[in-house]
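Journal club side-thread
Mid-discussion, someone asked how the predicted structure for our own chain would compare to the paper's figures. Pasting it here so we can look after the session.
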Amino acid sequence: MSYFLIKNIHMTAVSLSIAGFLIRGLWMLMNSPMLERRWVRIAPHIIDTVLLLSALTLAIKIQQYPFVHGWLTAKFVALLAYILFGMVALTYGKTKTQRAIAFIGSVLAFTYIVLVAITKNTLPFAA
């Protein structure tokens, strides 16, 4: 597969993943019964699997790896933060306030991941 095809698959999966997370986060804040739908619980796992596989394929194609290249290490650590915040926001937060704060933390972690991906810089906010 070509680099550009894999990158497009990856970027599409990123877009679907964050869109789904934002929708589920809003449903959580509104106490929507949509969160209980089967497809709402299954689709993120499929999308995130495609996302992870495309990320691994891209890393191999460009021969850059987490714990070797700083910007990929930063993305990996931020991904863990995104996942942990997301788990608290959508499942494990005991109060609506905890869930809302975790939701914001997850969105901020995602934003950082995207900025690092664009700039290839661990400090994308620095001048």
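Post-session note: The chain has four helices and no strands.
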